[in-house]
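Good day; I would like, with your permission, to put a structural problem before you. A protein sequence and the structure tokens that stand for its backbone fold form the material at issue. Thank you for your consideration; the sequence and its tokens are set out here:
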Amino acid sequence: MVTGASGLLGANLVFEWSRQDLDVVAMANIHTVSIPGVKALRCDLLDAKHTQEIVRSMNPGWTIHCAAATNVEWCERNVDECFRINAAASGLLARTARSVGARFVYISTDSVFSGERGGHTESDTATPLNVYARSKLAGEQAVGQELPTSLIVRTQGKSGRVDARPIAATLDIFWLRGCYLCSPTSE
């Protein structure tokens, strides 16, 4: 199951895994995806009951949570909603994944660091500078509390397109391949 399946990363994951004939459920809120062989579902992650119903009915082996409010300016103007999307909904998804025994991957951002230097490690103290980054850090914390075995991935900015070629620019393509290697059929 991939949330944010209409976004760049989510759509590319869905596209790639569908090409490999894996069972993929693509969840999106406003713009659903249409890829042959993929079950596409519309889901507003702020609707907790509906979200839980979908996850429980699909009973995924994996939930890859790509959905997020990412427009920094919008996040600054809509602080409460930003935190509901990026933190509260993420915690709910992790809790629901735990209830069905699914593994969980939370896509975060390297923006949880100030950008003053690079080469961060997991033990470095996060220093988010804006609402978006603070909300993603809160999402990491909510996910970690609900499902400590979750994988939290801090990506860099992504750009590219969805098609037969892998996405380019700063997305760590090795992570994409690694995620595929631990696909829903892997132990």
